């Protein structure tokens, strides 16, 4: 395993952040982007921009820092680190831990979420490096990803028969899906559609409107986010918000009216977004969350309905490694792991009615 060193990113690197991160070995992740870092600042996280270097390559990553009373500080590399090989993750994290120890704030742990598929070999590699497996956080730790590299005709043929038929039927029936201009009216409409959607047994809108408005505005202002609506009887009936970051498109938010007459409308809005993202240079489309691959057909899973819809576009479900903790200060981490994290999440929820992470 090649050694790595970590340093603070320079002012010039931070200014070019959204050019540098998509050039990482795995293509970067939207949750490591400049717009998302500004969203996290409003939630109480401090972004620490890092350049982590080996003799082969440099990878840019944000460590989101949150201060924990009494204990110190937690670093969270959301959907990171981004390394060329799974074997590079332990030395990469060692470099980040060494850098964290040199900074003020008494960092006691670094939480990571490397985007490598979860395998027995990967779990053994991480366990051998002393990384501690914890509960997964992000919606797309298990997700369906559609390859956008085929031409449009082949892309349609690659959909499942259910998805392909829904798209063709909607087009034949004259259903129209289209991009819409961002703005307050669009935001309010999208939020309302999300509130009415019944996504399995999950709450469709776990955060307040102000959070979503700020999130959408950041990505729209950066030229990365687009809205798509289908209309029925002159009113929006299905909506989607999709982000393009580097060559990766992510279906971030969606919603719909519960009772609609246009067959295939939700498939068509995705198809419109897929083709638009492909035209803009995306090479993959992340549907951002399904049940794990071994629970796709489990009707008791809260994301069962979403999983069935998303896998009508691609049956490939990837289970990523999920969350691991790198221990920086063992004694403090034991307190955090045993009770501190649970208490911090409970207090944060009572105060803000929003998730801690």
UniProtKB/TrEMBL annotation:
Residues 162-289 form the BioF2-like acetyltransferase domain. GO terms for biological process: cell wall organization; peptidoglycan biosynthetic process; regulation of cell shape. GO terms for molecular function: aminoacyltransferase activity. Gene3D superfamilies: 3.40.630.30. Keywords: Acyltransferase, Cell shape, Cell wall biogenesis/degradation, Peptidoglycan synthesis, Transferase. It comes from the Bacteria. Belongs to the FemABX family. This is Methicillin resistance protein.
């Amino acid at each position: 395993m090649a050694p790595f060193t970590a340093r603070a990113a320079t002012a010039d690197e931070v200014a070019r952040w959204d050019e540098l991160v998509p050039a990482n070995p795995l293509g970067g992740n939207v949750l490591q982007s400049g717009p998302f870092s500004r969203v996290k600042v409003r939630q109480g996280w401090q972004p620490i921009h890092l350049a982590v270097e080996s003799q082969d390559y440099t990878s840019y990553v944000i460590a989101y820092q949150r201060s924990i009373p009494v204990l110190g500080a937690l670093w969270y590399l959301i959907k990171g680190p981004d390394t060329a090989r799974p074997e590079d993750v332990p030395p990469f994290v060692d470099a980040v831990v060494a850098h964290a120890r040199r900074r003020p704030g008494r960092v006691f742990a670094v939480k990571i979420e490397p985007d490598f598929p979860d395998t027995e070999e990967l779990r053994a590699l991480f366990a051998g490096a002393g990384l501690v497996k914890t509960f997964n956080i992000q919606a797309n730790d298990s997700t369906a990803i559609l390859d956008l590299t085929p031409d449009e005709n082949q892309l349609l043929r690659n959909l499942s028969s259910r998805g392909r038929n829904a798209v063709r039927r909607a087009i034949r029936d004259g259903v129209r899906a289209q991009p819409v201009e961002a703005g307050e009216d669009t935001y309010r409409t999208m939020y309302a559609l999300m509130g009415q959607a019944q996504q399995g047994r999950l709450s469709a809108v776990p955060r307040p409107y102000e959070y979503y408005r700020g999130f959408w505005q950041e990505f729209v202002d950066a030229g990365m986010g687009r809205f798509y609506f289908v209309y029925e009887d002159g009113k929006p009936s299905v909506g989607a918000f999709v982000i393009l970051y580097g060559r990766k498109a992510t279906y971030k938010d969606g919603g719909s009216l519960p009772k609609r007459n246009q067959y295939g409308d939700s498939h068509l809005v995705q198809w419109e977004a897929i083709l638009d993202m492909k035209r803009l240079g995306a090479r993959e489309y992340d549907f951002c969350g399904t049940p794990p691959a071994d629970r796709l057909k489990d009707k008791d899973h809260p994301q069962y309905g979403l999983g069935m819809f998303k896998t009508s576009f691609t049956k490939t479900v990837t289970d990523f490694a999920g969350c691991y903790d790198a221990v920086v200060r063992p004694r403090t981490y034991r307190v955090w792991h045993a009770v501190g994290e649970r208490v911090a999440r409970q207090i944060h929820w009572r105060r803000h009615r929003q998730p801690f992470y």
